[in-house]
Amino acid sequence: MKKKDKILGIIGGSGLYDIEGLKNKTWVKVKSVFGNPSDEILFSELDGLEIRFLPRHGRGHVLTPSEINYKANIEAFKNIGVTEIISISAVGSLRKDFVPGDFVLVDQFVDRTHSRESTFFQTGLVAHVSMAHPVCGRNGIHILQAAKNQNIKIHNNGTYLVMEGPQFSTKAESELYRKWGCDIIGMTNMPEAKLAREAEICYTSVAMVTDFDCWHPNHDNVTVDAIIKVLTENAENAKKLIKNFVPILLNDNNSKSCSCKKSLDTAIITSPEKRSKEVINKLNSILSRLNNNLN
Known about the structure:
By secondary structure, the protein is of the alpha/beta class. The protein has helices at residues 70-79, 137-149, 171-179, 192-198, 224-250, 277-282, 291-294, and strands at residues 7-12, 23-28, 41-46, 49-55, 84-93, 103-105, 108-112, 154-156, 159-163, 184-186, 202-212. The chain has one domain: Rossmann fold. Strands 1, 2, 3, 4, 5, 6, 7, 8, 9, 10 and 11 form an 11-stranded mixed beta sheet that branches. Strand 3 and strand 4 form a beta hairpin. Helix 2 crosses helix 5. The radius of gyration is 19 Å and the shape is globular.
């Protein structure tokens, strides 16, 4: 796969795009048939790799997790050719050994959201993509190597409980999620991961632990200042992680053949004669690899 065919999309907090060596930075308004993305997208380049950065909550953190237009965000990335996504998000810990400041490479999700549109497909074109393994294992290996190169503490594999928010969980809920075997809790990776899979974009989730969830006996002693301090330190490590990830991705010759990029091959179930041309046209960018076979 040619280097110019790899475009890395990063979804995360506003401070993460200030990476040393980032060149040709330009904010661009990208349109989506599903409405407005969270913000303009920062077009840039790092060490020869094109990078597109989207502040998930908008610059200045103006959107609640439920207000984020996840469909517009992912479709906008697809429209501009993003092939890989790194999602970076702050989470609370449900485990004693996942402490503030740690990173977690997420490999599973439990989706407890209930107010968000979670699919691009609709009446006239139905698809069921597999979410058994909801993240890109290939890029996950690269993330682990990048973290190792920078001596960043990262837990390999973790189950992320995605709650609706914006309120935090009750203590009873927190204890329940621990019994379910969940490791961390946050509000933003669903339906983001589902939509990325439908869009055939490799999706990798890196979670940054800021504090313990309310199950922890010391939770009530956590201060805003302490959380901000951890967030700041995590953001610096996240930037180092991305910078080290870039050359590893550039040298990956297996990106094009990754199974994430073929997730729709066996997913569309609507009979050819019943498929809506209107829906197919609306999903032109999402279905770009298959369009010749759908009409």
